[in-house]
Amino acid sequence: QWKQLENLYFREKKFAVEVHDPRRISVSRRTFGQSGLVVQTWYANTSLIKSIWVMAISQHQFYLDRKQSKAKIPSARSLDDIAMDLTEMGTPKVSKLVTLEAKNQLIMASNGSLISSGSQDSEVSEEQKKEKIMELKKKEKLLQEKLLQKVEELKKICLREAELTGKMPKEYPLSAGEEPPQVRRRVGTAFKLDDNLLPSEEDPTLQDLESNFVIHQKLVEAAKKLASEPDLCKNVKKKRKQEYADAVKKLQEIENSINEYRIKCGKKPTQKSTLALPGKRIP
């Protein structure tokens, strides 16, 4: 029925009719607050689809005009009154057709809809528009609250990074005129390699392996200090313990590579990681 019509439109070679069916609940809510929207589609060449659409628009307009006329016609009228009304309605009808034609010029050749054609949408009331606006405002409020929550989470992450590196990251969100907070770097996570600690080998390959071992040894020490910090929550402490265990494993793999290369070159293997980490277990 025409009163169930939501929209008529065509796109290229597609003609569609959207109607409300109270007996059917749509899976996806295509419009705000409406769940019974059903879409029927047909396909043909563009010129035929547009012609069908124009006829459908005209038929819908006829339905609206007829409905409006019925509301205005009184129950009992004389023939003279009817003749007078028909005479008076002649001029407005012509101007209305001219206006409709002018509006149709704005419709592109490849697409159009019921609303763009200038026809009245009998189902869209002011109350429905208000409901849609209210729902949009609710969604906007929820999005703003979620955005504020994410901003606070980003601030905490940036502060944590600043404690570890001593430098506030540029991603830290600042309001207009706000200065970034001063953060003291957490002691115990920084280390510096002394040139004397790096082994000196004649073999360049062995020299690279030994240097890599020394660097990862310092990384293991830093990971151990982070995992041993007091007042850590359970999840963070568990994560740092795992990072420390991974660092120790990586250090052992580097030592194994060194020993394999030393044996290949006719040299004795070493046990550096065992000697360097006597108490590697974190309570």
From TrEMBL:
Where does it live in the cell?
A: Cytoplasm
InterPro entries for this protein: CUPID, FERM_domain, FERM_PH-like_C, FRMD4A/B, PH-like_dom_sf
The signal peptide, as residue positions, is: none
Q: Could you tell me which Pfam families the record lists for this protein?
A: CUPID (PF11819), FERM_C (PF09380)
Q: Chief localization class?
A: cytoplasm
One of the protein's GO biological processes: establishment of epithelial cell polarity
Q: Which PROSITE patterns match?
A: FERM_3 (PS50057)
Query: How is this protein annotated for GO cellular component?
Result: adherens junction; bicellular tight junction; cytoplasm
Instruction: Note the coiled coil stretches, chain numbering.
Output: 126-153, 237-264
Domain of life (superkingdom): Eukaryota
Quote the Gene3D superfamilies the UniProt record gives: Pleckstrin-homology domain (PH domain)/Phosphotyrosine-binding domain (PTB) (2.30.29.30)
FERM domain span: 1-67
UniProt keywords (A-Z) are:
Coiled coil, Cytoplasm
User: Is ATP-binding among this UniProt entry's keywords?
Assistant: no
Q: Which SUPFAM superfamilies match?
A: PH domain-like (SSF50729)
Q: What is this protein called?
A: FRM4B protein
Q: Which organism is it from?
A: Smithornis capensis
